[in-house]
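Researcher: Next sequence.
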Amino acid sequence: MKRHELKILPEYYNAVREGRKRFELRKDDRGFAVGDRLHLRKWDPAGGYTGEVIMTDITYILRGAPGYGLADGYCVLSIGKIIEAYQRTEAKDEADKE
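Model: Next structure:
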């Protein structure tokens, strides 16, 4: 299982947090696999990272479907339930490195 830290805009972060959005459309450049852990880091274009993070797992990956409008080199990640939503702190960052 790999860990992927991804920036996510506030409107999408909020939709994931509220349970209305259970997928991510991403460039397929990180070797995503089912079971990998995502840390979705809320990022505001005006101010950068907010410190808010959602941790979830990849449950399914759609690739190679240009006939359905999914461009080559992109994938749709189905995401599971939120495992944890937290405010990122220096202490949390250090614990994550272990």
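Model: The helical segments are 10-17, 90-97. The mean pLDDT is 92.
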